[in-house]
Amino acid sequence: MNVSWDGFGLTPAFAPVFLYKRAFLKRPLSKRGRRCFVPEERDCIYSSVFASACCSQSSLEYEMEVVLIACGSFNPITNMHLRMFELARDHLQDTEKYRVVRGIISPVGDGYRKKGLIEARHRVEMARLATETSDWIEVDTWESLQPDWVETAKVVRHHYEELKAAQRDQGEDDTVSYGKKRRMEEEHPSINEAQPPQLFLLCGADVLESFDVPKLWKPEDVEELVGHGVVCITRGGSDPEKFVHQSDVLWRHRRSIHLVREWVTNEISATHVRRSLRRGRSVRYLLPDAVVTYVKEERLYSAQSEQKNADVVLAPLARYTDAGPS
Question: pLDDT value at position 33?
């Protein structure tokens, strides 16, 4: 005969399940509306099945907020550049560990001195036009306005400091959130909600592989970038997994490197787009329509513009070798 258990008329066999549900329903909702389940100790001791999983702080379902930043020439920005942001957000959020809250496009300044690089003001405006329809990707002009080339690690560092400053300002202004934050920290000391979003570098496989090009990157900058986190979108013919395996630096930080394969093949290249524009060919559907219109109106990308900086050493190579000032 079944006996009453704990005053609820339950058999011992069903007691653990009941206690699990009761503890679950008392938990607060996470940022995506899921309940964060950390049962109380007394709820766990009745079941060896749930004890190891329930009593661990690691079972919290709080998602880490992430900001994606893409640095590059964007000469011009293409649909593939925008597509990379969407692919990265889907991949990170599918892990249920991250919530992507913002995307940043940071065009390089004129001081980069890459062959064929048109003026930053044009590249910034094209990026702004391309992101007008996005509710989460924006263009930042800080890097493009610097008189000299700025290392990518410094750009990421600048934006991370801005995220931390914004977090501090929000904490000071929002007293209601501050009270809630204090209560959460008291209940779960391992959670520090005052931390700003993580800043992940978004790039293609070619950038990841360029980390090994002599004199192009400082080793300490590579360490810093992969330490923050990197999301790499792979293209056909690339093998970033192999490169991570071959590089000691990347292997040490492999858990911070997210490799995302694009199964819908898209080989749009800014270099190929510029070639088509020089030859008077259509680039519609390769670039956002607003960018195509801007290129035509400003008469960008000609045989002459492609020769710009042709006889100038690329800024990173000039800085890290005897070809330029130290």
Answer: 42
Report the pLDDT averaged over residues 27-46: 40
Phi first, then psi: what are they for 8, rounded to 5°? Answer: -110, 5
Token pair of 314 as six digits = 């690329």
d(CA 186, CA 293): 56
Residue 76, preceding peptide bond in cis (omega within 30° of 0)? yes
Q: The tokens of 55 are what?
A: 């009593």
pLDDT, tens digit (0-9, with 9 covering 90-100), for 246-300: 999 999 999 999 999 988 877 789 999 999 999 999 999 999 999 999 999 999 9
- The burial class, CB within 10 Å (0-12 / 13-18 / 19+), for 35 is middle
Residue found under tokens 């000609």: 302
Length of the chain: 326
Rg of the chain taking only CA atoms, in angstroms? 25
Stretch (H or E) spanning 105: strand 98-107
With H, G, I as helix, E, B as strand and everything else as coil, classify residue 247: coil
Asked whether the beta carbons of 215 and 186 are under 8 A apart, the reply is no
CA 302 to chain centroid = 33
pLDDT tens digits for 199-249? 999 999 999 989 988 888 999 999 999 999 999 998 777 788 998 999 999
* Long-range CB pairs of 262-266, under 8 A, 24+ apart, other chains included: 262/83, 262/87, 262/233, 262/234, 262/235, 265/236, 266/79, 266/80, 266/83, 266/235
pTM, two decimal places = 0.76
Please give the Cα distance from 322 to 68 (Å, whole number): 34
